[in-house]
């Protein structure tokens, strides 16, 4: 769990199982162009994002097929907040996605797009987040 969101997201150890069988090439909950900031080199790059089944994938191209390789994937369930970040970055249509350890920044093409991404990702966070205590509960009675 201590692994950085960025390292998880940028695929430093990306394997097919990171996608949890998510067919990102078909019927996404949301997809579109966003500009994202790099982790180490703080340049802004335009990427095609796909939100599906609690994973936020990004690609260099918008033509996504079964053989497409994501440039990164964020397990949205590990995120705590998604909110506007125009004041933080001093850039129009900016928003941020945060975990307890990291914050990633994005820029949408319009206010409407920004709000739609915030709403979609926010809904996905709620649907896919799991309480830490729930996962740590051990019911010894059920093992007798």
UniProtKB/TrEMBL annotation:
Q: Which SUPFAM superfamilies does this UniProt record tie to the protein?
A: PH domain-like
Which Gene3D superfamilies does the annotation name? Pleckstrin-homology domain (PH domain)/Phosphotyrosine-binding domain (PTB)
Record-linked Pfam families:
PH
For this protein, the record's SMART domains field holds: PH
Domain (PH) spans 27-126
User: What protein is this chain from?
Assistant: PH domain-containing protein
What species does this protein belong to? Stephania cephalantha
């Amino acid at each position: 769990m201590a692994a950085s969101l960025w390292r998880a997201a940028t695929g430093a150890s990306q394997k097919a199982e990171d996608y949890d069988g998510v067919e990102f090439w078909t019927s996404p909950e949301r997809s579109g162009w966003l500009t994202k900031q790099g982790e180490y080199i703080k340049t802004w790059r335009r990427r095609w994002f796909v939100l599906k089944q609690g994973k936020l994938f990004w690609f260099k191209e918008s033509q996504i097929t079964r053989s497409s390789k994501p440039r990164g994937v964020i397990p949205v369930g590990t995120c705590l907040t998604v909110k506007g970040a125009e004041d933080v970055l001093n850039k129009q249509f900016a928003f941020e996605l945060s975990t307890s350890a990291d914050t990633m920044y994005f820029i949408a093409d319009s206010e409407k797009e920004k709000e739609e991404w915030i709403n979609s990702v926010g809904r996905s966070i709620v649907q896919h987040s799991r309480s830490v205590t729930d996962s740590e509960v051990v019911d010894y009675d059920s093992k007798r």
